[in-house]
């Protein structure tokens, strides 16, 4: 709060008002709510604390010994939460509601409460419905101009639909929720397994289009993760945490990839959970075989082979080479490393080695 507004507030309350910054831990230690929001009030003896803004693990508060009636407290809370339809600065009521939901999501993740359900007091609770598709978008261009909420919302609505909700989580990180009706255009069959695979392909296509739209409009590099349709009132916090982890693992194990799918990183998640000394010891034991991955052709061949589920014919098509050329490369790998990726056990071992090599070579 700037100095002028602070002085005006002191005049209205007829008492000194001090702007302070405290930790959320200090707030809860004094008896405050676990997930404080702007406008939350806490009486401390003769003085009170009033939350103005939440920022990570810190709270910007006002402290005063003014005597407030219940009505005055509600009016202050209304003012701090942006009760007007369009407050100063052009921030709409929808953006204020979205930011409050985003702050609550971030606080819940920070507190480790991934299973938290959205409380009724958050206005957007009533705009969430079953079967929403979650996208998490992270921009990495710290030196670029961050688009405004209104600009992003307009662009995403044109790409997704008017039912879309845009929720800022952290700086340059946005959650986009769209209706599962986006999947209605996908041709499906009667077989449930095939239908689910087609749904995943459609989700990947939507995420790729979202990434392309963002980079064409604002430039720079960004990452997009997408999940299967959810019941947001019950699993929104978990979903954001899962998609955030998906982007982190994708950036760590697959440099150069910008669209990340949680159902394709199960092995990466497992490897990331293994203690670093254990991973290092494993790679040292395989020291004689790591040199194979220094060859770009070998790496690209293996990446394509695993991406095509170890199917020789499909891998050859993807690499635009003859099937016999691919077989020659695989036989060469077998002769030099004693590992035949056409064998299940060896394929698993090479896949693990390749993923860990991509991480360790960058250190």
Automatic annotation (TrEMBL):
Stretches that traverse the bilayer: none
Keyword annotations: Coiled coil
Residue ranges of domain PucR C-terminal helix-turn-helix in the record: 299-355
Coiled-coil intervals, chain numbering: 179-206
Stored InterPro entries: CdaR-like_regulators, Homeodomain-like_sf, PucR_C-HTH_dom, PucR_C-HTH_sf
This protein's record includes keyword Coiled coil: yes
Superkingdom assignment: Bacteria
PANTHER family for this protein: CARBOHYDRATE DIACID REGULATOR
Protein name (Swiss-Prot/TrEMBL): Helix-turn-helix domain-containing protein
Taxonomic placement: Bacteria, Bacillati, Bacillota, Bacilli, Bacillales
